[in-house]
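Sequence in, structure out. Go.
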Amino acid sequence: MSAYLVLIGLVVLERLAELVVARRNLAWARSRGGVEHGRRHFAWIVLAHIALLAAAPAEVWLLGRPFIPLLGWPMLAAVLLAQGLRWWCIGTLGRQWNTRVVVVPGLPLVSSGPYRWLRHPNYVAVVAEGLALPLVHTAWLTALAFTAANAVLLTVRIRVENAALGLIRRDPAGKR
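Output:
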């Protein structure tokens, strides 16, 4: 359990580093006329991620979930790969990356790095990590709950992001 708590702690530190980058990038975007979209769902995303990081070790401790090497090691590899993909996305987007949906007028869509192959590769990392991190120590209830909540939140988030980026065309009545 102590090694798992170290892993969770490292993920928390990674999230804090993301927030530092996001705040810096938000200030940069706003200074260039950046507009934030989808503010209402953002708090729910934050809450879901905090719940993931709290519930996974709580489930392990309260329900006595064991570390099963055949499951735990591949899930740890998936967590590490997800982190690599996330930071590849952050590096590729540079100042345009944010935890919020912020669009700076006049900037082109990024189509390099992982965005060559996927429209939303950062969300692939979020999905993989959200499933794998709890399963490192067989916290399957947390994995299921977060995956279900995350599916709903990402559906909303991707629609908001696609609309903000002009990837979804709306008619004057506001319908797609």
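Check: The beta strands are 35-37, 101-103. Residues 2-164 form a domain with the Four Helix Bundle (Hemerythrin (Met), subunit A) fold (CATH 1.20.120.1630).
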